[in-house]
Design goal:
about 300 residues, alpha/beta, Rossmann fold, GMP Synthetase, Chain A, domain 3, three-stranded mixed beta sheet, 9 strands
Length: about 300
């Protein structure tokens, strides 16, 4: 049997479960997860290596997790939606992930507009079916979505519980065409470790804070030195107001210590060594509206900038 491969974009509203699906299929935690909307701010690539088995060819599925689709109201939001549209370019298949427990909204219409422009085959994934008390309510939801778009497949599932994942993989391999090995068998993402470390810190900020603070914070790595036995990392947590800084630092520095301890444990699992992590909180007023600062947060653009212009 011929080897199958292709790029598959995961699309959906905030908190639909896109990052949970990515992590489950890849088998590693590549994307941070929290109950807060718009946790994912960048497109994240995850590589699923599927071995050959009886009746099914081997395959390499390159998943592209995207920020939640929404109507942007800031430079950060516009950058996130730009990432969504960039991810759609060149993909072979789209997975539209929907929270089966939530009603249709205006954000769904934004997704539909993107799908219609792309004209790429689409699977509808009805996620979180484990939260539906009455499974009979699922059929009307399926019919309602089928009336909106000609989906190639409709798959009810629970990314968190792992329900429907094997069926999804089988359908992905059926749909993808014969193709090359795009990535080595031991590679699961294209993200630099510095970006993953920054995201691990931001995840702990999301988990530890509430109201406007999670949305008004971001993380930049200022120092990263990897040794054989110890990694030294210094990171800045940026917020927009002095009041937010006071919350992030906490009384006697306790909140910052809590965030740092939890993040350090996650980072040590990533790098495989002990970690000395130093955190600072800095105020940058209205950073989400600063185009230049938002661009600094995109590691792909930063790498391109550091590499300089392509030689003719």
């Amino acid at each position: 049997m011929s080897f199958r491969s292709g790029f598959v974009c995961i699309l959906g509203r905030p908190n639909a479960g896109k990052s949970t699906l990515l992590n489950k299929l890849v088998g590693q935690k590549l994307a941070i997860i929290s109950p807060k909307p718009q946790t994912t701010r960048n497109r994240i690539l995850g590589i699923v290596h599927i071995p050959r088995k009886k009746g099914r060819p081997a395959a390499q599925v390159i998943l592209v997790d995207t920020p939640g689709v929404h109507k942007p109201d800031s430079s950060l939001g516009r950058k996130m939606m730009g990432d969504v549209r960039e991810a759609m370019q060149g993909c072979n298949l789209v997975l539209w992930m929907v929270d089966a427990t939530r009603k249709h909204s205006a954000d769904d219409q934004i997704v539909l507009d993107i799908l219609r422009k792309a004209q790429t085959p689409v699977f509808l994934l009805l996620n979180k079916i484990d939260l539906l008390r009455e499974k009979g309510k699922l059929l009307p939801v399926i019919e309602a979505y089928r009336s909106l778009y000609p989906f190639k497949e409709v798959i009810p599932m629970s990314a968190l519980k792992g329900e429907g994942l094997n069926l999804l993989l089988d359908k992905l391999i059926e749909t993808l065409l014969e193709g090359p090995h795009y990535f080595p068998d031991d590679q699961v993402t294209d993200q630099p470790i510095r970006f993953m470390v920054a995201e691990a810190i931001r995840e702990q900020v999301l988990m530890a804070t509430s109201e406007e603070v999670p949305h008004a914070t971001t993380v930049l790595i200022e120092q990263f030195e990897e040794g054989a036995k110890l990694a030294r990392i210094a990171a800045a947590i940026y917020c927009e107001r002095e009041g937010q800084k006071r919350i992030l630092v906490g009384k006697g520095g306790q909140m910052l210590k809590k965030i740092g301890t939890a993040a350090r444990l996650q980072i040590e699992k990533m790098v495989g060594t002990r970690v000395f992590l130093e955190l600072f909180v800095k105020v940058r007023p209205d950073w989400r509206e600063s185009h230049n600062f938002v661009q600094e947060l995109d590691w792909r653009r930063e790498l391109a900038r550091l590499a300089g212009p392509e030689k003719p």
